[in-house]
Prior knowledge:
It is a single chain. This protein has a single domain (39-221), classed as Double Stranded RNA Binding Domain (2-Layer Sandwich), CATH 3.30.160. Helix content is 36%, strand content 24%. The protein contains four helices and ten strands; from the N terminus they run H-H-E-E-E-E-H-E-E-E-E-E-E-H. It has helices spanning 2-24, 27-34, 90-113, 196-221, and strands at residues 40-42, 49-52, 63-66, 70-73, 119-120, 128-140, 154-155, 159-169, 175-184, 192-193. A hairpin with a 6-residue loop joins strand 1 and strand 2 (49-52). Helix 1 (2-24) runs antiparallel to helix 2 (27-34) and helix 3 (90-113) packs parallel to helix 4 (196-221). The radius of gyration is 18 Å and the shape is globular.
Amino acid sequence: MKITRCLQVAAIAAAALLMANAWAGSKEDFDEAMSADGLQKIKVKGIDVAYALPGATLAGYNKVIIDPIDVAFHKDWDPERTGSRFKLSAEERENIRTGVSKIVHEEFVKELQKNNSYQIVTEAGPDVLRVEAMIINLYVNAPDTMTAGRSRTYTVSAGEMTLVIQLHDSESGAVIARAVDRREGSDSGMMELSNSVVNASEARSIASIWARILKKGLDNAHGIKN
């Protein structure tokens, strides 16, 4: 089981990086990566790009497996500690990465379980949808490491991150849909105090939007009015 899980994580990571690189490159390469497994482009309100298997439906899924969320920083992200010229340590970077992973996973679980809509499970089954997601290009502006006596730092936005998500039939492993969506922290147009609480709140707000879009897709398939 552990080996299988490692292979699954490696597969989604490779796919995510391929999509990110293709997106930064040519539209043709990106479309080719997204349409793998016979998927075709569709429109999903609130999502930058989405592809789905023709004729596939989410109507048969009442339970959901949410895989652990892997997180990759933007290749150009190499920040200094807030109020200093020292780079973040490996431990501090890992704390940010795992923190974002936990926040995104929690928001998907919370939203899908709202009003007892969908049961979160860990075992595959005929009525179980598997959600495989990854955050790429995570860029945190003015990361706060909670150092005593730190300087006040003001930013316009907390940063940005991109979701790469694939929906699978849990038994067959077939890909039903995949999507990519980039989000930035809220931009009030004014300089605001940046700290760990604000950064976490922005990440949670973005993750909540993605979770609501997924739940709406499931609800629509089941004829549930939102």
